[in-house]
Amino acid sequence: KAYYSEDWQTINEATLYESDGTTPYVPSTYDNFTNTKEDKNRKYVNGQDLFVFGNYGITDENNTRRVIWGSFDNGHSYKVLYEFNIPGAYTIRHVHTVIYNPNYDKFLCACGDAESEARVLQFEISGNSMTNLTQLGSGTEHYMWAAIAFYGEDVYYCLENSPSAVVRVKFTEISDPTKHHNILENLPNYPIGVFIGDHGDMLVTLTRFRAGDSYSPINYKYDARKMYYSEDREHFHEIITEDFPGKSENIYIFYGFY
């Protein structure tokens, strides 16, 4: 389900539709909306703030649909813009993020997890439909992207691989793996968030999954969940916090914020 509020008090359930915009969407047992919107960029269609995201698909059950959703009425309703893992469509395991680049008026979609499932897609929105869907890269470690951020002409992304890294590439050169350059590398855990301020400073957060381990809840490395900060997106230092009574090993789980 999805919900919206126009006054921060009254909660209303949104309507979900299939890609035709009229057939009600019937969720399967494991469908979910486990994806966050981490960027501050906005795309407006007919004066409405467009909200586009993908569902992560928390399990590997065959009946879990992986789709990209779009709302064109401020969250009152959503419709399927694209569905993966059906005949003629791209195959993936998860949608990691969908993000809008206002400099080029295009969206990027990062999918994973393994190299065979890793894809970086580009698309546009025209009217209330997805158009010009293009694959910019797939099938290699260079496209195992998690979080994405834009600054100027550059794209910064978290590499979900071992060794893990934060990588920079020009938006127009994503399809050329030789143009991807690590700016923060050899990270102990997978980076899950990259956030850039208005003046170009950057915050990187790591998840609890250990780089190089298989995808299993038991493969955690809590002491390697760290945060890094850079004023120039080149030189980084770790953010150090103090211990305090009752501190939990789960305290450093960051997925998205402004």
Question: Topology of this protein?
Answer:
Elements (H helix, E strand, L loop, with lengths): L2 E2 L7 E2 L1 E3 L25 E3 L2 E7 L12 E5 L5 E7 L10 E8 L4 E7 L6 E8 L2 E10 L6 E7 L2 E6 L4 E7 L10 E7 L1 E8 L5 E9 L16 E4 L6 E2 L20
Walk me through what this model shows.
- With 258 residues, the protein is mainly beta.
- Helices cover 0% and strands 43% of the residues.
- The chain contains no helices and 19 strands.
- The strands form five sheets. Strands 3-7-6-5-4 form a five-stranded mixed sheet, with no helix packed on it.
- Strand 9 and strand 10 form a beta hairpin.
- It is globular and about 50 Å long.
- The C terminus is likely disordered.
Keywords:
globular, 43% strand, mainly beta, single chain, 258 residues, five-stranded mixed β-sheet, four-stranded antiparallel β-sheet
What's the gist of this structure?
The protein is mostly beta strands and about 260 residues long. The protein is about 0% helix and about 45% strand. The chain is globular.
